[in-house]
Amino acid sequence: MTDFLDLQDPRIDPFDVAQRAAAVIAERTGSPTHDIALVLGSGWGQTADVIGETLATVPNEDVPGFAKAAVTGHDSAMRSVRIGDSDRRALVFGTRTHFYEGKGVRSVVHGVRTAAAVGARAIVLTNGCGGLNPSWTAGTPVLIRDHLNLTAASPVEGATFIDLTDLYSSRLRDIAHTVDPQLPEGVYTQLRGPHYETPAEVSMVGTLGGDLVGMSTALEAIAARQSGLEVLGVSLVTNLAAGIGDRPLSHAEVIEAGRAAAGRCGRLLASVVAKI
């Protein structure tokens, strides 16, 4: 177990911590680099099993800057996975730090920065979310084509200006469409959480152009672009957003929807990752 690191401490360089984390991952996995990284959100937990053989598993708390999962249904470890029968490797994070945990934006994006530090060229960010489109029933995967960041925060510090025009790579989305041409696309909206959105807030999101609502991903995507990673975002609609459906929202529903869709989602991502 590593010593506790407060990434919010201004004396700490978060990119230096990411390099330290990458060094531990390289040592523990026996691989100096990884080609692609995945962050598994609610409903995506079985994906690593489908991508290929797990060659090494590293508990989060053994890596600088990481901690155990704070959300039920997430895995507190990262895996080094062989992609199919190739010699390429994927680094799969079984959980993420959410903004609502109060650990600061640096902690939220630490996994992304670590992915860049281990040599990944692309990252797949997944999540479970609420849908505004009534035709997207629970279990529907949706490619993220853009986002609304309504957290009032950014992982970018100082006078550093990052172009987000093609943040969610059109090239990677095209690859995903070769796997499943019917995959819909939408605009993901990150709010602070941890409470679910009110019907009025969901209505606001719809007016702003959002199709999906959740509590992750946007901040990580911004950090990924800053670090030079190509980003593919995929949401799993686990429920209709507040005011769209007629059922109250619950985390148990999110977990159950994820379990029901796990096989399909895992196969989808495995096929996409093999082509990236």
UniProtKB/TrEMBL annotation:
The keyword Glycoprotein does not apply. Pathway: Purine metabolism; purine nucleoside salvage. GO terms for cellular component: cytoplasm. A purine D-ribonucleoside binds at residues 197, 239. It catalyses: a purine 2'-deoxy-D-ribonucleoside + phosphate = a purine nucleobase + 2-deoxy-alpha-D-ribose 1-phosphate. Keywords: Glycosyltransferase, Transferase. It is an enzyme of class 2 (transferase). One of its GO terms (molecular function) is purine-nucleoside phosphorylase activity. Phosphate binds at residues 42, 74, 96-98, 128, 216. Its EC number is 2.4.2.1. GO terms for biological process: nucleoside metabolic process. Pfam families: PNP_UDP_1. Residues 36-273 form the Nucleoside phosphorylase domain. Belongs to the PNP/MTAP phosphorylase family. Homotrimer. The purine nucleoside phosphorylases catalyze the phosphorolytic breakdown of the N-glycosidic bond in the beta-(deoxy)ribonucleoside molecules, with the formation of the corresponding free purine bases and pentose-1-phosphate. Cleaves guanosine, inosine, 2'-deoxyguanosine and 2'-deoxyinosine. PANTHER family: METHYLTHIOADENOSINE/PURINE NUCLEOSIDE PHOSPHORYLASE, PURINE NUCLEOSIDE PHOSPHORYLASE-RELATED. This is Purine nucleoside phosphorylase.
